[in-house]
Amino acid sequence: MQTTGSHDLARKSAHGFTLIETMVVIAIAGIVMTTAMPSFGNLIETRRIDGVATQMASDLQFARSEAVSRNQAVRVSFKADANTGSTCYVIHTGSADQCQCTAAGPAQCEGGAQQIKTVALDSTQRVSLQANVGSVLFDPLHGTASPAATLRVTGPQNRAVHHTVNIMGRVRSCSPQAAISGYRAC
User: Fold this and answer.
1) Which one of 22, 39, 44, 111 is at 20 to 30 Å from 69 when CA atoms are compared?
2) Where residue 85 sits, what CATH number does that domain have?
3) Is 1 part of any domain?
4) Cβ-defined contacts of 14-23 (< 8 Å, 24+)
5) What is the pTM assigned to this prediction?
6) Distance of CA 53 to CAs 28, 50, 166, 173, 181, Å?
7) Is position 137 within any domain?
């Protein structure tokens, strides 16, 4: 006949973790989180750059198609505000200097120019836009662009997507050293 002592019954009925086991799990979780945080930050930056770059490529094609469908020259003008660090681009009719970005809302146009779309990138997005030209004009007859342009969407760690608009009005995109996945290397 076997008897079970009260000490053995208490041990069998106890469930849960000891303090040491809990502290080991917390320490391991802390190490994993510490190593994962930089990767997560890089992922967020990459997605922001990709989102802005994708929108810009789409908007360039939109401006080209608007020129043809309206049978009127359409321009994409790029503006930067050195005081606030924000940049924007405006899709509009008229000359390059007839539409200006505003702090809040759509661009203000004068002299018969018409704003079609405004996209503002403020400094909180941590993505900037640089253009080697002030504006690109899309011809209504053939959809060609004048002048050819290179546009750079850049993040704080210098990851970037470059869009090249050739004189035929086509947009070609790449990323230096293929830093942004989904884009060919420049």
Assistant:
1) 111
2) 3.55.40.10
3) no
4) none
5) 0.77
6) 38, 5, 17, 9, 12
7) yes
Q: Rounded distance, CA 174 to CA 186, Å?
A: 5
Q: 38: cis peptide before it, omega within 30°? A: no
The answer to whether 74 touches 92, Cβ cutoff 8 Å, is yes
CB 174 within 8 A of CB 185: yes
Task: Give whole-number Cα distances, 101 to 18, 35, 54, 105, 164, in Å.
Answer: 62, 41, 21, 8, 23
Report yes or no on 70 lying in a domain.
Answer: yes
pLDDT in tens, 129-183: 999 999 999 999 999 999 999 999 999 888 999 999 999 999 999 999 888 889 9
Q: Report the alpha-carbon distance of residue 170 to residue 161 in Å, rounded.
A: 16
Number of domains composing the chain: 1
